[in-house]
Design brief:
This protein is 67% helix and 1% strand. By secondary structure, it is an all-alpha fold. Strands 1-2 form a two-stranded parallel ribbon.
Amino acid sequence: MTRPDTAPAGRVSLRRPTGSRWGQAAGALSLSVSPICLELSGTGAGTASAYRCLLALPLLLVLTVPEWRREGLPPRRQVGYGLAAGALFAGDMVLWTKAITEVGAGLSTVLVNVQVVLVPLLAWAVDRERVTRRFLVWLPVTVVGVVLTGGLLESGVGGRDPTAGTVHAILAALCYSGFLFLLRRGGFHGHVRTTYTVVIFSSALCSALIGAFWGGLDLAPPWPALGWLALAALTSGVIGWLLVAVYSPRLPSHVGAVLLLLTPVGAIGLAALFLGERPTAGQSIGCLLILVSGYFTVGRPHGEESAPRHEPGRRAGLVSPSRTSRGPGPAGGPRSGR
C-alpha cells in the first residue's frame, strides 16, 4: 500500500488529491460492512471491539514488516499518537454500542455523526486549518441528511435509559473525533502502517480492559461469532481503517469528514441487501442528501489547482475561499457503525 507523501518540518504534501479522495471513499465503504458483521455475530460491545482488533493484528504485522525494514521504527511522538488514538477508538466502539441499547440506534447514530463538524473544528483550533466556504454552505444539508439517515425523526428517542444513552453517545462522538484527528496526524511523516498497527494494538488492549470492568467480554465466543468478527476485522481493521490512515493525511479535514459519511450510507444499503432491512423514505432521502452535499463539497471547482501543502500551527482564519484554499489538515468523519 502506498505511503503518503511526506514533507519536512510539519508539512504534508497533497500531490494527488483526486486519488486520495477515491482512497478515502473506498475506506469508508469498506467500513460499512462492519456493522452487518457485528450484528450477525451477536456478541457484546466489549467482545466485538476486542476481537475485531485482535484478529486484525496478525495481517497488519505482516503488512508492516516491509515498512519497518524501509523506514525503521516511527518517532516516539507518532507512537504516542497511535496509543492515544487506539484508546479513543476503543472508547468510541464500546460507548457507541452501549448507547444503542440505552437511547436507540437513531439518536445514538446522529449524535456520533456530529463529528463531521467536530473534526474540522478541532483541526482549525489545533492546527489553524481553514475550511472552504463550500463546506460551510453545504454543511446544513449534510447535517439534515445525517439526521434523516439515522431515522431519528421516524423512530424517535427509544431505549431503556435515554439520559445515560445520550451521555454515552456524546462521549463516543468525542472519542471518535479525537481518534480520527490523531489517526491522521500519525500519518503526517510516513510510518503509516506501523503507527496504525500501534493504534489497533492499543485499541484491542483497551477494549479488553473496558469490557472486563464494564461487562460484556466473552473470552471464548462461539466459532460462528468468531467468523463474523474475523470478517469485520478484515473489512474494517485491515482494509477500511488502513485506507483511511493512508489517505486522510493527504486531504483537508472537512473533505475526509464528508467522505466518511459514505459509511452510514453504505451500511444502510448492505443492511437492505443482506439483512432484509428496508430503509424508510426518510432514510433514503437522507442518503441522497449526503451524497449530493458530499459531491458539491468534495469536488473541486473548475480550474482549482491540485491540493496544496498544509503547515500545522500556521495562523489562519476559519474560512478560506473555495478556489484559493491553501491549507488542509487532520481529517475525520461519521458512520452508522464501525
